[in-house]
Amino acid sequence: MPEFSTLRITPDAANPRIARLLLNRPERLNAINDATPREIRAAVEWAEGEDEVHVIVVEGAGKGFCGGYDLQRSAEGMEGEHPCQQESDPWDPMEDYAFMKRNTEDFMSLWRCRKPTIAKVHGAAVAGGSDIALCCDLLVMADDARIGYMPTRVWGCPTPAMWAFRLGPARAKQMMFTGDVIDGRTAAAWGLANVAVPLDQLEAATMQLANRIAGVPHGHLAMHKLVVNQVMLTAGLEQTQMMATVFDGITRHNPEGMWFRRQAQAEGFKSAVQWRDSGRPIPEGDEARALAKALQHKRKDPRHDELSPQLDRPRSGQLARHLRALRPDRTRAR
């Protein structure tokens, strides 16, 4: 049996035709680190090589399915250079693209795999966690589970681009424009989830579906999956993913993305996320540039006097208020 640092995969104890892939970082809400995408691909490849396995169930340990990329430490830190959070100016979009495209291809191993994959979602499947869930063929959710991609408001574009293909253009645009999260009941009503049930029935509902599929011969499952996948490919899935992955990098390095990064570094990741998700206007353009610069000074030296002259220049009301909040308290400093 293969061993991994972020997940585990084993045959189901009651039916070895079903493989159980468990995202297993419960202390971090199964957040995605650099190893997770590679290990998902390796686990899928193991299941592909097991003749007895007919279907793969993907689930999360602990309180939820997956809370997305493990961004708190990386967003708050400035040490070192990461392809997806470059400090160099100008940044290199192809370094970012290469890193994120590899992640996307690793997640898409769930979709390309000739064996059906089922995402069993409780708690949260949000941001990058929704990428994993939507790369699976089928989605079974608890009624109160949550799915969505909040970083579409700032600092993200879902690289697998599955929302339009799973929801249709109108609902996908609603989710992308708002960054809203929907529950399992809504996901089922919209056709995103195949089934939504109370949490205490989630295991039974998922395994009922998995057992039903597991009785079908390998070859038939593979053919049917290829036919449906070909429809999505013909509709432009691969080209859409390429565009989405390029745009994802831009969202993290444009003025708005740099403001979000600096807000997380200076005030903490929770502060940046609270602003993002509150519905407050996201600083943009020159305003975002000025705020990012001010926040960078604050992080380097909370008493930096260079902030003070910025308050004297005419700016929008939001920017002026935010800069005043960053301005050093000289009375306390003395």
Shape: elongated
Q: State the helicity in percent bands.
A: 40-55%
Largest sheet: 6 strands, mixed
Q: What portion of residues belong to β-strands? A: 5-15%
Average pLDDT, all residues: 91
Q: In what order do the strands lie side by side in the largest sheet? A: 1-2-3-4-6-9
Instruction: Return the structural class.
Output: alpha/beta
Which segments are poorly predicted (pLDDT under 50) over 5 or more consecutive residues? 304-315, 327-334
First-residue to last-residue Cα separation: 63 Å
Strands, count: 9
Radius of gyration: 22 Å
* Number of H- or I-type helical stretches: 17
N-to-C series of helices and strands = EEHEHHHEEHEEHHEHEHHHHHHHHH
Structure notes:
- There is one protein chain.
- By secondary structure, the protein is of the alpha/beta class.
- The chain is built from 17 helices and 9 strands.
- Helix 1 (36-49) links the parallel strand 2 and strand 3 (55-60).
- Helix 1 packs parallel to helix 3 (93-107), helix 12 (255-267) crosses helix 13 and helix 12 (255-267) runs parallel beside helix 14.
- The protein starts with 6 loop residues before the first strand and ends with a helix.
- The model is unreliable at 304-315 and 327-334 (pLDDT under 50).
